[in-house]
Specification:
single chain; alpha/beta; Rossmann fold; 5-stranded parallel sheet
């Protein structure tokens, strides 16, 4: 049996996590992290080789402890992680919001949760990971 590709997903909405845990089970190895501080700690472990590198980062912008852009910014500063694709998956849908939050940060996709249900998001995730593998 082949090893599943890993997704590092920073998301705090429990109902959203439950939907995607079920939808992605057996397709990808998904690590859901609900706090930015925990995500930053885990990123440092990945950088040091203590944790497996993911094939994709998915990051929500609104987190209970700090903005998800801080997590994305840290990822993009690390040489061994900066080329891994990253999606922003958020409820902020306005163009001005995108520009405000990700100005100068390189993201593969900026996606609005309400427009990307599992039926659309999972094929996009698969395609992105396959292209980067």
């Amino acid at each position: 049996m082949s090893k599943l590709k890993k997704i590092f997903w920073v998301e705090d909405e429990k109902a959203f996590i439950n939907v995607y845990e079920k939808a992605l089970e057996g397709i990808f190895d998904v690590e859901f992290i609900s706090l930015a501080r925990t995500a930053l700690d885990r990123i440092k472990e990945i950088e040091k080789g203590k944790e497996e590198k993911p094939s994709l980062f998915v990051i929500d912008l609104l987190l209970p402890d700090m903005n998800g852009v801080i997590v994305l910014d840290e990822i993009k500063k690390i040489e061994s992680l900066k080329d891994i694709p990253a999606f922003i998956l958020t409820n902020y849908g306005e163009v001005k919001d995108r520009e405000k939050f990700i100005d100068g940060l390189e993201v593969e996709k900026y996606l609005v949760k309400t427009k990307w249900p599992p039926s659309k998001l999972i094929p996009l995730i698969k395609e992105t990971i396959e292209l980067k593998s």
